[in-house]
Every structure is written in structure tokens, then in C-alpha cells.
Design brief:
9 strands; single chain; alpha/beta
């Protein structure tokens, strides 16, 4: 009896999460970030989807037309865990409610502050202030040479093709993670994690995350 009740409860929890995920995915493009706060699965669905104001000084991670859902899910989880904003610049090479993405992102999506943009032009028009820092193998600076700022947006290119020249030219900084030859490039998630670690270290971001921990 007890195990049956637990399974029913778990099923309701997943159903609630799916409902809120759908709400986020159907939000209008180019609007402020949709923040999802999912209530405890033991309670009735009391989740509110609300628009949050943009606060200067918030670092963000942006994905340009991603085409591998597992990588996108991993970066969503990374952004949520480190307390930074997350942007997806469409079109994507997959449907955003892809189960492979959700499997990797897990329940971290419930406290992820994220935006969807229908195009690169929309992103340029609507993104918050701050430098646009592109991670690229054609980077001019190593990530340890950069004086990072709290309001930087770190842009990661498409896994299969990087970014077009127009996007490359639009970036304020082009940054590379130095690699040992003959290595050519890192997985985009690995590169993003390395660079975010240094950027947050320099700007006190880890201290802000630590301050939110209990116990």
C-alpha cells in the first residue's frame, strides 16, 4: 500500500513539473525572464510563473542555436546551480521540451532564471546590459587574462558550427580556454564551466552563492 502511494505521489510530482515546463516553453519570445518556482510535490500545484526584473550585475550564460539537447540541459543545470541567468537563442536543433534535455537538467529547472529569444536579432535588441563575451577557439584572450565583470554575458556557440562571423564581430571580447596541442576544442559544457569558474571567482560570485547555503 505504502509503495503504491509513493508511486502515485511521484507521478503527480512529475505531472506538475511537466505543466510548469510547458508554461515556460509557451511564454512569448523577447520578453523578460520567466522564473519558475515549483512548490513541494506533496502539496497542491501552487506554482506561480512571474516575470522578474532585470538586476544590473547579474552574470548570464547564453547558448547560440544549440543543437544537442543533453549539452543544453547540462548548461541549464550549471547555470541554476551557480545562480546565474541563462539565455537560449533560437532556432535550436531540437524541441525545447526534449526529454533528453529534461533528463540532464533534472529538477534544477525549477530555480533557473532563463529567457528564450526567437532569433539573434531579438537577443541583441532585448538582452540586458553588459559585455558580450564569446567563447571561441578563435579567441584573442585566454580566459585567465580577462578582467571579468559581474554583468558579463558569456556566449557559447553551436556545437556543430560555432557562431557565424556576424556574431563573432558583435562580441565585445573573444575568449579561448588554452589547450595542450594537438587538442582542438573542449565540449561546450566543459568550456563554459571552466570559464564561469574563473569569472565567478574574480567577481565574488562564489561568495554570493555560499551566502545562500543553509547550515
Amino acid at each position: 500500500m505504502r509503495s503504491r502511494a509513493v508511486r502515485r505521489g511521484a507521478g503527480k510530482c512529475l505531472e506538475k513539473l511537466a505543466q510548469m515546463w510547458h508554461l515556460a516553453l509557451t511564454a512569448s519570445f523577447c520578453r523578460p525572464a520567466v522564473f519558475l518556482e515549483i512548490s513541494d510535490c506533496s502539496t497542491e500545484l501552487s506554482t506561480l510563473t512571474r516575470v522578474v526584473d532585470l538586476v544590473g550585475g547579474d552574470m548570464r550564460l547564453a547558448l547560440f542555436e544549440p543543437d544537442i539537447p543533453q549539452n543544453s540541459g547540462a548548461m541549464m543545470r550549471l547555470a541554476a546551480a551557480l545562480g546565474i541567468g541563462f539565455d537560449v537563442i533560437e532556432p535550436c536543433g531540437f524541441v525545447l521540451d526534449d526529454r533528453r534535455l529534461r533528463r540532464v537538467a533534472m529538477d534544477y529547472l525549477r530555480f533557473l532564471d532563463w529567457r528564450r529569444y526567437e532569433s539573434w536579432a531579438c537577443f541583441c535588441d532585448q538582452r540586458p546590459p553588459g559585455r558580450l563575451v564569446l567563447l571561441t577557439t578563435r579567441g584573442e584572450l585566454g580566459h585567465l587574462e580577462v578582467a571579468w565583470r559581474p554583468d558579463d554575458t558569456i556566449l557559447v556557440g553551436r556545437e556543430s558550427a560555432g557562431v557565424p562571423d556576424a556574431v563573432h564581430r558583435a562580441a565585445d571580447l573573444k575568449v579561448v580556454v588554452p589547450l595542450r596541442p594537438p587538442a582542438r576544442a573542449l565540449n561546450v559544457v566543459t568550456a563554459a564551466a571552466i570559464v564561469l569558474g574563473e569569472a565567478l571567482r574574480q567577481t565574488g560570485g562564489f561568495a554570493a552563492v555560499a551566502a545562500t547555503q543553509v547550515g
